[in-house]
Amino acid sequence: MRKMQKRPIRSGAPLTELVVAIGVFAFAGALALQLFLGARFAAQKAEDLNRAVMTAQTLAEQFKARGGESASFYYDKDWNLSEAPALFSVEFAVTREDGDMSRAEVTVRREKPYPFLKEDGEPLYRLSTARYDGRGNGR
């Protein structure tokens, strides 16, 4: 009669290695996805900053040329004028000083934070300017 040989008991090492490898790849994939999305929204923020600068400069130049009063403007995601509530708000604040000087401050804000980016609550852009009336009547 033949003697029965015992089969060796297989350990779970290959299965454990496979689970660990899948976990490492899942972690690396999640990290890469977060980095790609962060880069996408950082590029969007840079584009919005560019549009905010152009909008603020336009308002400042119009104020220096013609004067003006305080106002608020609202823009949608494509920077088209819209009604409040909108994605972007522009505050144009004019203050009169003694004499013939007027000062204006343009503040551009994004109402919703950018996803995946840390925000500190600061405006997207702020610009100050002044205008000399030159009439000599104090107004």
Describe this structure in words.
The protein is an alpha+beta fold and 139 residues long. The protein has one helix and four strands, in the order αββββ. The protein has one helix spanning 13-66; strands spanning 71-75, 88-96, 101-110, 125-132. A four-stranded antiparallel beta sheet has the order 1-2-3-4, covered by helices on one side. The protein is rod-shaped and about 120 Å long. The chain starts with 12 loop residues before the first helix and ends in a 7-residue tail after the last strand.
Characteristics:
1 helix, four-stranded antiparallel beta sheet, 4 strands, single chain, 139 residues, alpha+beta, 39% helix
Briefly, what is this?
By secondary structure, the protein is an alpha+beta fold. Helices cover 39% and strands 23% of the residues.
